[in-house]
């Protein structure tokens, strides 16, 4: 039995690698901001101030205003 299999062309693999690296970079930036927001929220709840943490948010990314979720209401 002779079956023909299509092989992925090299130029398509380069496009996929670029797409995956870009998606990974965006995920990393979002996770760093989420971690920072969680640490800030915990510090404010514990100590009442947010200045105890270093400001390590990226300066070139504008902060997007998002609606509060059910979880944020349970933390009050």
Describe the secondary structure blueprint for this structure:
Elements: H1 10-47, H2 70-74
Give an account of the 3D structure.
The chain contains two helices and no strands. By secondary structure, it is mostly helical. It has a domain of 44 residues. The longest helix has 38 residues. It is elongated, with a radius of gyration of 21 Å. The relative contact order is 0.09.
Provide a concise account of the structure shown.
The protein is mostly helical and 76 residues long. It has two helices and no strands. The chain has a domain at 11-54.
Give the end-to-end Cα distance, rounded to a whole number of Å: 67 Å
Question: What's the main sheet like?
Answer: none
Shape: elongated
Mean pLDDT: 70
Essential attributes:
76 residues; mainly alpha; 2 helices; elongated
């Amino acid at each position: 039995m002779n079956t023909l299999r299509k092989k992925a062309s090299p130029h398509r693999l380069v496009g996929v690698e670029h797409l995956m690296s870009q998606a990974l970079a965006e995920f990393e930036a979002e996770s760093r901001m989420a971690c920072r927001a969680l640490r800030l929220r915990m510090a404010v709840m514990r100590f009442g101030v947010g200045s105890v943490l270093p400001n390590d948010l990226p300066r070139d990314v504008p902060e997007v205003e998002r609606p509060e979720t059910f979880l944020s209401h349970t933390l009050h």
